[in-house]
């Protein structure tokens, strides 16, 4: 199978390229080599340094391609209003341009890297009033250490539940809004062109080759960097925020399965959670990293950031039943290994 892979030199993209090549696929790699992700590094051998926003000018790269695996994106929260144009340009205009070029070239299958951030807050239930949809947590509550989402009916703390792909979407950052827009463009393309899309909603990805201390890093890499400096990892809120951490090798395998499945038994557009299936508190991640590296114990600071969600934990069932994907590396295994895994500077 001939696969065009965008973001091929990135953290996740390079792992995807490995599994595709190992499976015998012919991989055409494209990467813009954004400084935010790669610093001043040159494109690795065999990778075309190109911008997805210019996909119409790529010439013959899409010729004979069976499926496009689209990993290229500007990531990170996008915490400032000034970040909005960059996210819209790289992620949304770039995806739209790629889809138009695919249609022109007659390529009808796409695997799209999406994200759990499209959900906003996760799924919650009240012991008395059942399923609830909490609003944004107030600064006043966070300032006094009331971190759990209150039930909108009775005010009692809500319990988290697993989020399925049928959950309502509620993007709460520039990055989240851009990832949801990518899904919408892809779904519209599928309806208009007769194409097929599998969108993979990654949860917290970690592992070898992860960037060190960049907007692409994520909390696991930041905790690890603190330990390497001999500092205690700083854990926000009370450390009880529940997340799902999925190893990059599992994410790469999910892409391989999706590339095989897209256009076969799937509808025009389908989204799947890509997760370990093992919810873990943020504090536990810090403890696992500090313990594996014999570093200082984590410090729970009580600090908080605007827009952070309390809990977001996925159900893996749909990806298992329809893609055949089940994560093989649990956080309790993978996070300690990550403490000494090679990172990219």
Order of helices and strands: EHEHEEHEEEHEHEEHEEHEEHEHH
Number of strands: 15
Major sheet: arrangement of strands: 3-2-1-4-5-9-13
Please state the structural category.
alpha/beta
Overall pLDDT score: 93
| Overall geometry | globular
- Give the CA-CA distance, first to last residue: 33 Å
Strand content: 15-25%
- Low-confidence parts: none
Please tell me how large the radius of gyration is: 20 Å
Number of DSSP helical runs: 10
The biggest sheet amounts to: 7 strands, parallel
Helix % is 25-40%
Structure description:
With 345 residues, the protein is of the alpha/beta class. Helices cover 33% and strands 19% of the residues. It has a 7-stranded parallel β-sheet with strand order 3-2-1-4-5-9-13, with helices on both faces. Helix 3 runs parallel beside helix 5 (174-193) and helix 6 packs parallel to helix 8 (282-292).
Any descriptors?
single chain; 10 helices; 3-stranded antiparallel β-sheet; 345 residues
């Amino acid at each position: 199978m001939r696969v065009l892979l965008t973001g091929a030199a990135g953290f996740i993209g390079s792992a995807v390229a490995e599994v595709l090549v190992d499976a015998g696929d012919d991989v055409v790699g494209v990467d813009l080599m954004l400084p935010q992700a790669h610093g001043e590094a040159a494109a690795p051998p065999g990778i075309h340094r190109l911008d997805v926003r210019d996909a119409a000018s790529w010439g013959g790269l899409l010729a004979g391609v069976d499926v496009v695996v689209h990993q290229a994106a500007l990531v990170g929260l996008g915490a400032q209003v000034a970040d909005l144009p960059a996210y819209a340009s790289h992620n949304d205009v770039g995806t739209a341009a790629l889809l138009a070029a695919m249609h022109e070239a007659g390529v009808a299958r796409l695997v799209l890297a999406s994200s759990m951030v499209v959900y906003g807050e996760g799924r919650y239930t009240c012991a008395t009033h059942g399923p609830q949809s909490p609003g944004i947590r107030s600064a006043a509550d966070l300032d006094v250490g009331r971190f759990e989402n209150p039930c909108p009916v009775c005010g009692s703390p809500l319990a988290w539940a697993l989020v399925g792909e049928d959950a309502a979407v509620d993007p709460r950052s520039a990055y989240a809004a851009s990832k949801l827009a990518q899904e919408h463009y892809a779904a519209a393309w599928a309806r208009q062109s007769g194409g097929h899309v599998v969108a993979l909603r990654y949860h917290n990805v970690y592992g070898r080759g992860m960037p060190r201390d960049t907007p692409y890093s994520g909390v696991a890499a930041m905790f690890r960097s603190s330990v390497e400096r001999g500092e205690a990892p700083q854990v926000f809120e009370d450390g009880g925020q529940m997340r799902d951490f999925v190893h990059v090798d599992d994410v790469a395998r999910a892409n391989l399965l999706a590339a095989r499945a897209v256009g076969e038994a799937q509808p025009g557009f389908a989204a799947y959670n890509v997760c370990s299936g093992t919810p873990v508190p943020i504090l536990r991640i810090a403890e696992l990293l500090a313990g594996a590296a014999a570093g200082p114990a984590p410090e729970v600071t009580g600090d908080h950031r605007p827009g952070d969600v309390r809990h977001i934990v996925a159900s893996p069932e749909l990806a298992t039943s329809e893609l055949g994907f089940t994560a093989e590396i649990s956080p309790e295994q993978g996070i300690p290994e990550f403490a000494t895994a090679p990172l990219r500077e």
